[in-house]
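Consortium newsletter contribution from the modelling node. Members have asked for a concrete example of what our holo predictions look like. Here is one, prepared for the magnesium ion complex that several groups have been discussing at recent meetings.
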Amino acid sequence: MAILQCENLSFGYDGETVLEGVNFSLNAGDYLCVVGENGSGKSTLIRGLLGLKAPEKGSIRFGDGLQSTEIGYLPQQTQIQRDFPASVREVVLSGCLNSLGRRLHYNADDRARAAMNMERMGIEDLADKSYQGLSGGQQQRVLLARALCATKKLLLLDEPVTGLDPIATGEMYNLIKLVNLCDDITVIMVSHDIHAAVRYATHILHLGHEQLFFGTSGAYKESSLARRFLGGGRL
Amino acid sequence: MNELIHMLSYHFMQRALLVGVLVSLCAALLGVSLVLKRYSMIGDGLSHVGFGALAIASALHLAPLAVAVPVVIVAAVLLLRLSENRRIKGDAAIAIISSSALAIGVISVSVTTGMNTEVSSYMFGSILSLSRSDTILSVILSLAVLLLFFAFYPRLFAVTFDESFARATGTRTELYNTLLAVLTAVTVVLGMRMMGALLISSLIIFPAMSAMRVCKSFRSVVITAAVVSVSCFLIGAVASYFLETPTGASIVAANLLAFLGFSLAGKKH
Ligand SMILES: Nc1ncnc2c1ncn2[C@@H]1O[C@H](COP(=O)(O)OP(=O)(O)OP(=O)(O)O)[C@@H](O)[C@H]1O
Ligand SMILES: [Mg+2]
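And here is the predicted structure:
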């Protein structure tokens, strides 16, 4: 049963098409890596899947009764202002908003989930610090913890390891894989790290203003596209 | 001290203080979201629309609050849409609407009643002229604003902090933005009675700005802004009674002093 199905999708800005011919479908539990050069339309596709950007053509269908309240999201760039007063705990907890349902306020379960995800990201010591006072990599971890709080079935990550140190990057990939395997959460991740992409992901989507490749990472490794993208290097 | 007790023995003074405290609270709480969402201009625009509505209501001998509240709510929703629309220059559109409303208000005043005390009280505020029915309506409306703010606090935080994340993860952000606009509209109209159209937006902006100088979490900003706002209102109101200065201006002056104090304290950290 497909959890997500895209048919002939295209996106544009001000009438100018930047991405077209996107056709792929994912099953629950898949781990998709979206790769491609800068400006190839990866973030645009992610924003389209989230309903933040309307497609020019084509359709996006969610299966499995997937609701937008079951999606976690890590944006590539946030519009969060520099001087916003918010503690780390408040930011992470706000990821639990979509599980409130009819409730008005967070309960003990939500707080426990926020605490657990802060621990996973190794930021429990920062809980009462101000978000704006953190380093870029620390802020990235906070936003990831927030995304993990929000996710129940699908997790969309736009370049999640940007700004993380090598150790944290490795931990991050392992953690995402763990969430994917243990919590059975479908992951869609944009990444420039093609080696990590083929190692961790089950599927690869290669974009370049159109869909250049979609298939399993095994098939991608063998494709001429992957070899060219890697500049001749072998995977 | 005796004089203070004497002052509090007046019915009109009790009413003024009750309404003032409640409206100051509303303004401070909403102010935090408005300032952080860069909607401060909306508060200012709404006050001018409010003036226009009150002036027309008084020209037509209608109940001022009953006319102004719905008109300003409609204007608030409209201004919110405009400021979100990237095609139109939002701030320019707000300026156009607010100065037009002000112009219409001034014209309708000059062709009918002229600049009577009622109209000038909308301009500069006169908290002591609250009637009994105005007081009751103000108390009910401001309690409703406070209740809604607390009920939707987590959602308002999320929509203020990162609207696109909230929307992407299934929060109906438009609904909560509209709620914010409606609550602001009600607060602006209520606050105009004491602050006047020219000064009400400072009641919304100042406490949040002061609190943000020293506080690092959203919750502490909200609480501090509320405390600052109510304290400045009380200080300003009492000072205006004894010094015979205009109420609205005295409250703004108190807020200005608080802001300077908080800025100094914030620098030290
Ligand atoms: N808000 C926007 N308005 C107009 N054009 C845009 C906008 N955002 C993106 N584009 C255009 O759409 C194209 C795809 O952009 P997108 O952000 O999706 O690329 P990307 O693959 O995520 O790149 P990167 O690797 O740099 O993150 C680019 O050519 C860009 O110029
Ligand atoms: Mg991108």
